[in-house]
Q: What sequence folds into this?
């Protein structure tokens, strides 16, 4: 549980949620996070103690940390299960299955509904990370980085402010890569690239409208060097997924991506901002059970 999620609302709402789960004969042991990355440590220690089912109480960042506590530790072992309680904050991953948020998540936990979910693995110069939602590079990562580093306490206003600042700077640049073993390297300038396991990011932004969490593939979305005015006109299409119909947009479903970058870049992965020298991206099919 991230007690700071939703400005502290997570802690206030947890007692009622636990009462409801325990009334349904679900035994829950609570562990609170105290710092960035703590959920990763908690999940790793819990796995070694024999726990196999986890609930992320917080947003996408909390579930991201739990996933990185479980992987690569669980590879080749019993499949772990992850449920969600987005108390006081959003959860983009859940929106693939319902827009009812906490209530849907609670019903899923009580009913014991679960399904297999792919886990995407990014290898980088310093190691590897795992995620279940989205990884982005370019404009989308620039916005997330600006918000995280300069406007983290501003809520939605911070997000909008970051968009406008990044629009003013407006960088379109190449991120050289190849997919599925192809010999050719794509060096074309672009606005952003996203590598998706699920459809939504930022709560309601449908970046990858055709992504599936259990198809064993990466939904790779590329938006070419659209101009500043063109982006402003098309911003609403990022929320309904119709941006993929733009002439400068491309969507591919691939199993592997190899990066040919000169150095580290800012990436946004499941809501978290990291600077990494990316090397390759692949899929661990059905490696996680999700309660949805």
A:
């Amino acid at each position: 549980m991230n007690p700071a999620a939703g400005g502290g609302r997570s802690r206030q709402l947890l007692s009622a949620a636990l009462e409801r789960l325990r009334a349904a004969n679900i035994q829950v042991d609570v562990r609170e996070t105290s710092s960035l990355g703590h959920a990763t440590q908690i999940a790793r220690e819990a796995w070694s103690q024999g726990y196999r089912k986890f609930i992320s109480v917080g947003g996408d960042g909390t579930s991201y940390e739990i996933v990185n506590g479980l992987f690569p530790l669980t590879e080749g072992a019993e499949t772990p299960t992850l449920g969600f309680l987005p108390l006081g904050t959003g959860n983009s991953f859940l929106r693939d299955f319902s827009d009812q948020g906490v209530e849907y998540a609670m019903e899923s936990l009580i009913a014991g509904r679960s399904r297999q979910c792919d886990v995407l693995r990014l290898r980088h110069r310093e190691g590897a990370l795992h995620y279940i939602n989205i990884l982005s590079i370019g404009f989308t990562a620039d916005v997330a980085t600006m918000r995280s580093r300069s406007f983290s306490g501003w809520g939605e206003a911070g997000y909008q402010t970051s968009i406008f600042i990044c629009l003013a700077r407006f960088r379109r640049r190449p991120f050289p890569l190849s997919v599925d073993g192809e010999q050719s390297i794509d060096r074309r300038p672009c606005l952003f690239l996203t590598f998706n396991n699920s459809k939504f990011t930022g709560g309601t932004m449908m970046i990858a409208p055709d992504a599936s969490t259990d198809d064993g593939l990466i939904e790779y979305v590329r938006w070419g060097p659209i101009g500043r005015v063109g982006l402003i006109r098309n911003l609403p299409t990022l929320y309904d997924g119709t941006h993929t119909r733009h002439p400068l947009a491309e969507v591919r479903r691939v199993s592997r991506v190899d990066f040919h970058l000169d150095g580290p870049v800012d990436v946004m992965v499941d809501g978290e901002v990291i600077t990494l020298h990316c090397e390759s991206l692949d899929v661990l099919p059905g490696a996680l059970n999700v309660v949805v």
User: Anything to note?
Assistant: Residues 9-23 form the longest helix (15 residues). Residues 81 and 223 are 34 Å apart (CA to CA). The first strand starts at residue 53 and ends at 57. The chain is about 30% helix and 30% strand.
